[in-house]
Design goal:
This protein is α+β, with helices and mostly antiparallel strands. The protein folds into four domains: 30-308 and 319-331, Sandwich (Immunoglobulin-like); 337-466, Neutral Protease Domain 2 (Neutral Protease, domain 2), CATH 1.10.390.10; 554-708, Sandwich (Chondroitinase Ac, Chain A, domain 3); 713-792, Immunoglobulin-like (Sandwich). Helices cover 18% and strands 41% of the residues. The protein contains twelve helices and 49 strands. A hairpin with a 2-residue loop joins strand 17 (230-239) and strand 18. Bound molecules: zinc ion (ZN). The site of zinc ion has 7 residues, from helix 6.
Length: 793
């Protein structure tokens, strides 16, 4: 399933808070294996659910459930079933009324005689009442005047499986059974359930009964019912195994939009069959429900928010996600909630795979990179810590690691295995574990068995441990080798939020010569320091590690080919703003934001404390006369993920910008920058006045205000500095255009103190002014382009 947000502008901070609130109050984690252990006593073969869903006023369901089972051990005299809150009238085996107790969660039924291995019996439980929704607001059984439907998972429920809100069952991920549903409705309403509609008949007047059969075995959380005055759009797709009927179900006014939003569903089928294997279910079904917070992958009858089927393709990755569950989750199911990454991480990755096959590799990489930035920046905040994907705490089963980091790591699995074997391995898992459950170790071992690629390191490093690896090139040395060149790369590994260096990591190095000829070669790295020698056809002037982002690591980046000047352009992944003021020929810029500590300062005579979180590196091939500036934000706001918490936890006064050309040189305060604090927030920015290639980081200076610190006003491409001042201020238009500006300075009584016209930049002498505040305005053709306050000390 997937949680989504539709309405309003909700900041990530608010999402983080709502996650924290809903998850922190949860009960302690149960032994998840224990939840499965009841399935060792009896095996449920079949549920026949016979329900009246007629009373929309009191929101009551009424009926019975026939549970057919066979003992897995001898001498079974009592069976336990989950049933939440509903009233149990009676329990029968054939015509025998059975003794039972029901404490609102557990229904205990005493059999008339013990049953043994080989026996099969059916008990019928008669029950009624108003079914529950989950405390989290996500999952359970929903009624309004028009619709009644279930969502088979409760985000806060324990166990999460939520069949028990509407029928007696074993709620866990491993117990699978076939289903029949006989649902009685009236007043034009019709029921849709898993499987195929085998009977649709009138009982009396407008009261009807519809019979649905689901012969493929599913866990209880995938069983469903949805009732409304539905209309069905019937389609037929050609799958690997032949014709597949498609049912797109919504109320009549919604069906046109539904069709339009699902035009690529057939493509999704092709994409997943090609990459994961054949669609093994007997129907493809989506049914619209008035639930705005997500969708639920009920097998062959996905509950889908009607607001997401709005006629556009804006939400089609949600369609792709839910449909992908018919491979990951529904067909191959996580053994316990602790391995929910197998359901949800793989379904989220399938969104990217859908995008790749629909819209191309660049669109795929865009999704992968943006998803991974979200992982690096926010997921540990929203999930209260860096978490391993496997053996996830119950409170975070449906947390952001499971979905987003799960997808990031699936991309890495592909890098470790290579494209073709990755999909060979996934198909083998689908084939071997169809209609079964799986855990992380079985997943790992099946990949090995099917491809002969040992995935032990990958699983240890990415699935069983938290955090991220990070690799960078410290230096290179080049030797001529005939007409080729032997390049030795010295590689450093750093770690973010984990303790063990990743081993046998597949990396790619891309080399450039001065004419931008490019040569890419794979290497494998382990340990903190490693080296590799590769032979390439030219002497490189630039080396980039993982230029194509085949592997997600603790780095986000933007690569730019620049041909024209630009102003203050956001590079979201590199986390900076770039202004190119002068360019004569094309420039190649690789801008990287590293989510690990920079190397320490070798000779720290000024006693700086360098960031423990992050640094930037700028590499590239720059033409002569290239001139650029960049803005780097320092930021300890919750909305951006406490990026500089280590440096800004007190205030912004002592933060400085340090620079080194490369790993061989040492960090020093960068000589050409200005610092701007914004308001009283722990936020502001450094403007690198003249961008040099190399590495940049923030540090604390022990001096409260460093010698180079200049506070400046920055507005509409104008900056004013230093401010406060005692003898002069500079005013500079960043783009240094040829426009003519009029500048006026007033005192606080409105008297004009100074006037001039300028182009590009100017310097105002303030030595003779009285101490105090002054207002400055800049206008162009009578239109104000800048206004601010100068403080003369
Ligand atoms: Zn999902």
């Amino acid at each position: 399933m997937k949680k989504i947000l539709f309405f309003g502008v909700i900041s990530l901070f608010e999402i983080a808070i709502s996650f924290a609130q809903t998850h922190e109050i949860k009960p302690i984690t149960p032994n998840q294996k224990a939840l499965n252990s009841r399935s060792d006593t009896i095996d449920i073969l079949h549920y026949q659910i016979n329900l009246e869903i007629l009373d929309f006023t009191n929101k009551i369901i009424n009926g019975n459930c026939v549970i057919t089972f066979t003992p897995k051990i001898n001498n079974v005299g009592v069976i336990d079933l989950d049933l939440l809150e509903l009233n149990v009238d009676s329990v029968f085996l054939s015509s025998n009324s059975l003794a039972f107790t029901h404490d609102d969660t557990l229904l205990k039924i005493t059999l008339p005689a013990v049953l043994n291995i080989g026996d099969t019996a059916s008990v019928t439980v008669y029950y009624n009442g108003s079914p529950q929704t989950d405390n989290s607001g996500w999952g359970g059984f929903y009624f309004d005047n028009t619709y009644a439907y279930n969502l088979g998972v409760g985000f806060d429920a324990n166990p999460h499986n939520y069949g028990r809100v509407w029928f007696p069952c074993f709620d866990n991920f491993v117990e699978r059974a076939s289903f029949e549903f006989n649902i009685i409705t009236s007043a034009g309403k019709k029921a849709h359930c898993n499987g195929l509609l085998v009977k649709d008949s009138i009982i009396t007047g407008d009261t009807i009964v519809r019979t649905w059969q689901m012969n493929d075995p599913i866990p209880t959380y995938l069983a469903c019912v949805a009732v409304s005055d539905y209309a069905t759009v019937h389609q037929n797709f050609n799958g690997f195994n032949g014709n597949i009927p498609v049912e797109l179900v919504g109320r009549a006014p919604d069906t046109t939009n539904l069709k339009n939003s699902f035009v690529n569903l057939n493509n999704a089928l092709d994409i997943y069959e090609n990459n994961y294997g054949p669609y093994l279910w007997n129907k493809i079904g989506f049914v619209l429900v008035p639930f705005n917070s997500g969708a639920m992958e009920h097998a062959t009858c996905i509950a889908y928010p009607r607001t997401a089927a709005n006629g556009t393709l804006n939400f089609e990755t949600l369609m792709a996600h839910e449909f992908a569950h018919h491979w990951w989750g529904d067909l191959v199911t996580c053994e316990t909630a602790g391995d929910m990454w197998i359901n949800e991480g793989m379904a989220t990755y399938s969104e990217h795979l859908f995008t790749e096959n629909m819209y191309g590799r660049a669109a795929y990489m865009n999704d992968v990179k943006n998803n991974h930035k979200e992982v690096l920046q926010f997921v540990h905040i929203e999930d209260n810590g860096f978490r391993a994907l496997s053996n996830m705490d119950h409170a975070y089963t449906y947390g952001r690691h499971t979905y987003l980091k799960g997808a990031s790591v699936a991309h890495n699995m592909r890098a470790y295995m290579g494209d073709s074997l990755f999909f060979v391995g996934l198909k083998a898992i689908q084939d071997s574990f169809q209609f079964k459950n799986i855990n992380a170790f079985e997943f790992r071992d099946k990949l090995f068995a099917s491809t002969n690629i040992d995935m032990t390191n990958f699983f240890n490093d990415w699935i069983l441990s938290p955090g991220f690896s990070h690799f960078s090139i410290d230096s290179t040395s080049v030797l001529i080798n005939g007409s080729n060149y032997d390049v030795t790369l010295f590689i450093q590994q750093k770690l973010r939020a984990t303790t063990n260096f990743h081993a046998n990591v597949p990396l790619e190095i891309t080399f450039y010569d001065a004419n931008w000829n490019k040569f890419t070669t794979p290497i494998v790295a382990s340990n903190q320091y490693s080296n590799a020698t590769v032979t390439i056809p030219f002497s490189p002037i630039l080396s980039i590690l993982n230029e194509a982002n085949t592997l997600n690591q603790a780095r986000t980046d933007n690569q730019l080919v620049i041909k024209n000047p630009s102003s203050n352009q956001l590079q979201n992944l590199a986390m900076l703003r770039l202004t190119v003021s002068s360019i004569t020929d094309s420039a190649l810029l690789q801008l990287e934001h590293h989510w690990v500590a920079p190397d320490s300062i070798k000779n720290n005579i000024n006693n700086y404390r360098i960031s423990s979180n992050r640094y930037w590196s700028f590499n590239g091939i720059l033409p002569p006369n290239f001139k650029a500036s960049a803005r780097l934000d320092f930021d300890n706001r919750s909305t951006t993920g406490f990026l500089d918490d280590d440096l800004l936890s007190v205030n912004t006064d002592s933060i400085i910008l340090v620079y080194r050309e490369n790993a061989a040189s040492d960090w020093e305060e960068y000589p050409y920058y200005t610092k701007t604090k914004i308001g009283s927030l722990l936020f502001g920015f450094m403007t690198i006045d003249s961008l040099l290639l190399g590495e940049y980081a923030f540090a604390n200076s022990p001096d409260a205000v460093s010698v180079n610190e200049q506070k400046e006003l920055f507005q509409n491409n104008f900056k004013l500095f230093p401010n406060p001042t005692d003898n002069h201020v500079f005013i500079e238009e960043i783009t240094l255009s040829t426009k003519n500006y009029a500048l006026d300075v007033y005192d606080l009584s409105g008297r004009i103190i100074h006037q001039e016209n300028f182009v590009g930049k100017t310097k105002i002498n303030t030595q003779t002014w009285r101490k105090g505040n002054y207002i400055i305005t800049i206008t162009e053709n009578s239109k104000m382009v800048f206004s601010g306050k100068i403080v003369v000390q």
